[in-house]
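User: Just a sanity check before I run the rest of the batch. Below are the structure tokens for the first item. I only need the designed sequence back.
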């Protein structure tokens, strides 16, 4: 999140904050230049794995089934301040969004390729403690992030409220998530602190909700941008808008 005044971007309506959602840009690994210089680099298995699935599933009993192998996702993920890797920047595809803080409606949005510095990585528990714990028990990372997290949480919550009012699919998804949370609490599996949903564990802490709302915002806004330019939107079976499936 950053002040609109620092961006120089012209927006349809006066708005103070710009939200940015950065997704690691992995398309470079498919470029001819990378494949020509890579020593023994065979990307065909990665492409076949992605094409055969078409979607990532996070609602399975044994945990998530990713579009690409977890080891590849880890290698291609954003380089953070907690990473041991030496690179200092990340190539991303970034969605920028302006949201009316009163109504929660999207004012303007766009998609662009960016280069960002190493982000500060927070665990879900650390992000949640910003809202639930005293200052003296927060980690240094949580203290540093607190002002921005409060702003982000406020704007995303306002957008989520507006979406729940206007979208039946969003209400159905919220009901499913609440049911999963209730079942997990009854089984006392949430105490295992697993974040992948494996074995029936399921959490919806404040930190989880910030990430969940941000990914919902990313998917729905991206869909709107593609519809606007009349671009085809590929959908895996069972991941339609009526299911609240996210577009990436």
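Assistant: Here's the designed sequence for the first item:
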């Amino acid at each position: 999140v950053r002040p609109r005044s620092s961006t120089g971007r012209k927006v349809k309506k006066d708005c103070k904050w710009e939200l940015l959602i950065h997704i690691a840009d992995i398309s470079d690994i498919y470029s001819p230049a990378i494949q020509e210089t890579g020593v023994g680099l065979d990307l065909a298995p990665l492409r076949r794995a992605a094409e055969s699935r078409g979607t990532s599933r996070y609602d399975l009993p044994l945990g998530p089934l990713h579009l690409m192998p977890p080891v590849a996702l880890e290698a291609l993920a954003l380089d953070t301040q907690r990473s041991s890797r030496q690179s200092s920047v990340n190539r991303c595809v970034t969605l920028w969004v302006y949201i009316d803080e009163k109504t929660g409606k999207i004012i303007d949005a766009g998609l662009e390729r960016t280069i960002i510095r190493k982000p500060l990585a927070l665990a879900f528990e650390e992000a949640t403690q910003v809202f639930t714990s005293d200052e003296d028990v927060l980690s240094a990372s949580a203290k540093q992030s607190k002002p921005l997290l409060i702003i982000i949480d406020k704007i995303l919550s306002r957008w989520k409220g507006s979406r729940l009012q206007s979208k039946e699919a969003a209400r159905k998804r919220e009901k499913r998530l609440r049911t999963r949370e209730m079942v997990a609490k009854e089984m006392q599996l949430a105490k295992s602190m697993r974040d992948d949903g494996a074995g029936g564990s399921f959490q919806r802490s404040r930190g989880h909700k910030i990430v969940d709302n941000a990914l919902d915002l990313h998917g729905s806004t991206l869909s709107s941008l593609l519809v606007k330019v009349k671009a085809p939107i590929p959908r895996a079976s069972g991941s339609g808008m009526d299911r609240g499936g996210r577009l990436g």
